[in-house]
Automatic annotation (TrEMBL):
GO biological process: L-ascorbic acid biosynthetic process
A GO cellular component entry from the record: membrane
Cofactor section: FAD
Catalytic activity line of the entry: L-gulono-1,4-lactone + O2 = L-ascorbate + H2O2 + H(+)
Protein EC: 1.1.3.8
UniProt-recorded name of the protein: L-gulonolactone oxidase
Domain D-arabinono-1,4-lactone oxidase C-terminal residue range list: 117-260
Signal peptide: none
Organism this protein belongs to: Aegilops tauschii subsp. strangulata
Length: 313
């Protein structure tokens, strides 16, 4: 909750986030082709991503990211006050008119060359969040351009949540604050699962730092497979949840191979195979897990030395 105004403040503000509006299929394709071009250049392409990120951020900022003081209006400045259901949810592209895909959601797979990305999202107790942020800043300072790919997707989003006693809620660790911080990252993904990504070592290090060094709780729907390795052990209520699940859904109607894997019921979420680290199917332990033919080898992290990341050498 943003409490910079009193609870009884009135307003009809809305959020129609620009990135979630119906977008011209031509624009969707052009954006993807620009990003693909930067990737093909290799690490030298970070300058192009940085420029695109600055332009995109400036345009979104001027437009208030889609905020308006009334539906159909334009952004005229802060504060914008409105109801929770109008301010904290958006997605106009899902309810846009059917126009034979002249416009679509930016990620609509029916549009060739639509947006395609990975996501990494986890929660940390407030008491650990500061140290994590400081380490990310140290990593950023080594090469600020390496994180421009994140900035293209609004950077690292931060949300504040409370711990929960629900079986799969976010548990408060003994002696730590019940307040939690969500860190949410979206970044480029190649449609070729064997293709390495620009500065992927930086993003893999942040991912492993948050999940493993600081014990982040993975978001159940917004992560790569490696995030769920050992995840069941982070939830004290997991066994109780599985008992309730078995009692109320004995036939597994609401389960799938994917959910059973994440919950630690069946096979491990990771695998040992050539190139497995590129798609987050493993943490690399040997060069073959990366893309040696493209010059990407398995190396220790730059700040979090226990990380093992695919680095361009």
């Amino acid at each position: 909750m943003d409490d910079r105004l009193p609870m009884n403040a009135s307003g009809d503000g809305v959020l129609d986030f620009i990135g979630f509006r119906p977008t011209s299929a031509t624009v969707i394709k052009a954006n993807r082709l620009v990003e693909e071009a930067s990737e093909r250049v290799g690490n030298g392409g970070s300058g192009g991503k940085c420029l695109t990120a600055r332009v995109t951020h400036a345009a979104l900022s001027v437009a208030g990211y889609g905020l308006a003081r009334r539906s159909g209006g334009l952004f005229t400045g802060y504060p914008v006050v409105g109801r929770q259901d109008q301010m904290q949810a958006s997605g106009g592209c899902l309810t846009g008119k059917e126009d034979a895909l002249q416009t679509a959601c930016a990620w609509d797979p029916r549009v060739s060359d639509s947006s395609f990305f990975h996501q990494t999202t986890f929660s940390l107790p407030l008491s650990r969040a500061g140290a994590f942020v400081q380490e990310v800043q140290r990593l950023r300072d080594l090469n600020p351009k390496a994180l421009c790919g994140l900035e293209l997707y609004d950077g690292i989003l931060i949300r504040y949540v409370k711990s929960s006693t629900a079986h799969l809620g976010k548990p408060a660790a003994a002696g730590e604050s019940a307040d939690m911080v969500d860190f949410d990252m979206t970044y480029y993904r190649s449609r070729d699962p064997r293709r390495a990504r620009l500065h992927e070592d930086f993003l893999e290090e942040i991912e492993q730092m948050g999940l493993f060094k600081y014990g982040g709780l993975p978001h159940w729907g917004k992560n790569r497979n490696l995030a769920f390795a050992g995840a069941a052990g982070k939830y004290p209520g997991m066994r109780r949840f599985l008992r309730v699940k078995s009692a109320y859904d004995p036939d597994g109607l609401f389960s799938s191979g994917w959910s059973d894997m994440m919950l630690g019921v069946t096979t491990a979420p990771t695998k040992d195979a050539p190139g497995c680290a590129l798609e987050g199917m493993c943490v690399c332990s040997r060069d073959a897990h990366c893309a040696p033919e493209q010059g990407y080898l398995c190396r220790p992290g730059k700040v979090y030395k226990d990380a093992r990341v695919c680095t361009k050498v």
